[in-house]
């Protein structure tokens, strides 16, 4: 795998709540140097000036997913209005685990309607879920109009991405949706494993280190 092949599927990410404007400026500069696909930031850092070849993604309902559907839709609308190209939203995990799949689907659809001109990625927090719940979450995301399903926020104590979850997510959505692996991807071996499992996008805060391994 070449540098440009890997960098072109990385969302270079900084979501630490203590991140400053200077930290985000440095993130953008690093993304430009590494030629990552995008930067992924908290919505309070929008609007964001980036080079033409770098997209902007922002999170929604992050990190708990327990915001009301109306709040998530309002946030998504504001994110889109601030110029973001992509939105990574967290589902209501309690609703999913409680079996209210309709509520999960309807919430995703409401966010989709609020931000029609952006790529919508749906974070299912796969480490918290059983295999049947992962499948249900992916189906709800597809039915709600999402473009991607995404493993994790990277903030849950249960953990981040796993190759098993990525494989199951890819099997469920086929080629109809993208699959983003995020959370705990810190080495080139991690990145390769997620891609081999079926990930078409990676969320990484360790992008520079991963790509440096590839360049060695």
TrEMBL record:
Cellular component, GO annotation: cytoplasm
Catalytic activity: 2-deoxy-D-ribose 5-phosphate = D-glyceraldehyde 3-phosphate + acetaldehyde
Record key words, sorted: Cytoplasm, Lyase, Schiff base
One Gene Ontology molecular-function label: deoxyribose-phosphate aldolase activity
Function: Catalyzes a reversible aldol reaction between acetaldehyde and D-glyceraldehyde 3-phosphate to generate 2-deoxy-D-ribose 5-phosphate.
Recorded metabolic or biological pathway in which this protein acts: Carbohydrate degradation; 2-deoxy-D-ribose 1-phosphate degradation; D-glyceraldehyde 3-phosphate and acetaldehyde from 2-deoxy-alpha-D-ribose 1-phosphate: step 2/2
Active site: 88, 150, 180
EC class: lyase
Annotated family: Belongs to the DeoC/FbaB aldolase family. DeoC type 1 subfamily.
Name this polypeptide is given: Deoxyribose-phosphate aldolase
CDD domains: DeoC (cd00959)
Subcellular location: Cytoplasm
Gene: deoC
Major place of residence: cytoplasm
GO biological process annotation, one example: deoxyribonucleotide catabolic process
EC number(s) on file: 4.1.2.4
């Amino acid at each position: 795998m070449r540098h440009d092949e890997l960098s072109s599927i990385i969302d270079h990410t900084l979501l630490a709540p203590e991140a400053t404007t200077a930290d985000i400026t440095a993130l953008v500069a690093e993304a430009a140097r590494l030629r990552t696909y995008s930067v992924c930031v908290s919505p309070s850092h929008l609007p964001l000036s980036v080079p033409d070849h770098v997209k902007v993604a922002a999170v929604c309902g992050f990190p708990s997913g327990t915001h009301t559907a109306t709040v998530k839709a309002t946030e998504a609308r504001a994110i889109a209005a601030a110029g973001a190209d992509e939105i990574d939203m967290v589902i209501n995990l309690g609703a999913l685990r409680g079996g209210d799949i309709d509520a999960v689907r309807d919430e995703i659809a409401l966010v989709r309607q609020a931000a029609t001109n952006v790529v919508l990625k749906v974070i299912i927090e796969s480490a918290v879920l059983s295999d049947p719940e992962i499948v249900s979450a992916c189906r709800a995301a597809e039915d709600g109009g999402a473009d991607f399903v995404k493993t994790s926020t990277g903030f849950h104590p249960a953990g981040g991405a796993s190759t098993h979850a990525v494989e199951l997510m890819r099997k469920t959505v086929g080629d109809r949706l993208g699959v983003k692996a995020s959370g705990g991807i810190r080495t080139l071996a991690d990145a390769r494993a997620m891609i081999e499992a079926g990930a078409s996008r990676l969320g990484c805060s360790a992008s520079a280190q991963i790509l440096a391994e590839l360049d060695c």
